[in-house]
Specification:
Elements (H helix, E strand, L loop, with lengths): L2 H12 L20 H15 L5 H4 L5 H7 L8
Length: 78
């Protein structure tokens, strides 16, 4: 799954319009980022490439880009 595809899936999880999420957004600023969205993200990462992520790992993420790195998405910025 490409970066763009992953972001599109994340937008669906967050119930945001297409093209809304780019990467630098702070998770704390996303009103829709909650425990349900976190579970959706974990499932998405597992489906994407079998990356196993725990809620504890997500707590250390501050931005959408951090989530992409954690999920090992191709094209995640370093």
């Amino acid at each position: 799954m490409t970066r763009e595809e992953f972001l599109a899936e994340l937008e669906e999880i967050l119930e945001l319009p297409a093209g809304t999420v780019k990467g630098p957004e702070k998770l704390e600023d996303l009103e829709q980022w909650n425990s349900v969205a976190m579970i959706g993200f974990i499932a998405l990462a597992d489906t994407n490439n079998g990356t196993r992520i725990s809620p504890r790992q997500i707590v250390n993420c501050a931005t959408v880009e951090d989530l992409l790195k954690l999920a090992k998405v191709d094209g995640a910025l370093n």
